[in-house]
Amino acid sequence: METKPSYFFKKIKDFCFPEIFDVENVWEILKKKNEVLSKLKPEIKGSLGKNVHFEGNVVIEEGTRVLHNCIIEGPVFIGKNCVIGPNAHIRGSTMVGDNCKIGKAEIKGSVIMNNVRADHFGYVGDSVLGDSSHLGAGVVTANFRFDGKNVKVNGKDIGLRKFGAVVGDNTQVGVNATLFPGTLIGSNSWIYPGAIVRGFIPENVIVKHNEIIKKIGPGGI
């Protein structure tokens, strides 16, 4: 099982805060992200639609459009040339990189790297989405166990009560898929619509339900 950020993310240097990836295990990115967000000062450079509601420290970079009826609860950083909403709910301790599209989704405590598409409704909680990854409509990254105990990754207690999923660069997650707490998915993989996924999924594979059904070669499928 791989847990180093470099296995999942190949474009770390392109992200606005590359220092948050300087950790041993991918779930530690969330703590580093919080440390960086705590030092930001609020600044709105992008454009806002009607009835956009802000709380706390929020940074929105130039070229980004926050459409009507969005709720953003800081601390939140949103990079350049993004489209947020309408009706999106961006909760505290979230970072969004450049050129992202977020639909009518709820995002909480997560890192969204550059060029990510989560254009539709869904929930992303305490997760990390890699560069150019894509979530279809209805995708949920569950971040909390029923029993309230710490999340485990492949049976290992990682010391966090809330941790959703890691989705590697260029990975596609189909509509209505559910990623259980502690799911790690490598880069360039495909998750079938409706799949229920848990544990470690390597890079360059196609997953149906929770089973790898095909390996993706250098030239694609």
Q: Would you mind describing this structure in some detail?
A:
Helix content is 6%, strand content 33%. It has 221 residues and is mainly β. It has a single domain, classed as Hexapeptide repeat proteins (UDP N-Acetylglucosamine Acyltransferase, domain 1). Strands 1-4-7-10-13-16-21-24-27 form a nine-stranded parallel beta sheet. An eight-stranded parallel beta sheet has the order 3-6-9-12-15-18-23-26, with no helix packed on it. The protein has a five-stranded parallel beta sheet with strand order 2-5-8-11-14, with no helix packed on it. The protein is globular. 44% of the residues are buried.
Describe the secondary structure blueprint for this structure.
Layout: H1 5-8, H2 29-37, E1 43-44, E2 47-48, E3 53-55, E4 58-60, E5 65-66, E6 71-73, E7 76-78, E8 83-84, E9 89-90, E10 94-96, E11 101-102, E12 105-108, E13 111-112, E14 117-118, E15 122-125, E16 128-129, E17 134-135, E18 140-141, E19 152-153, E20 156-157, E21 165-167, E22 172-173, E23 178-179, E24 183-185, E25 190-191, E26 196-197, E27 200-201, E28 205-208, E29 211-215
Parallel strand pairs: 1-4, 2-5, 3-6, 4-7, 5-8, 6-9, 7-10, 8-11, 9-12, 10-13, 11-14, 12-15, 13-16, 15-18, 16-21, 17-22, 18-23, 21-24, 22-25, 23-26, 24-27, 25-28
Antiparallel strand pairs: 19-20, 28-29
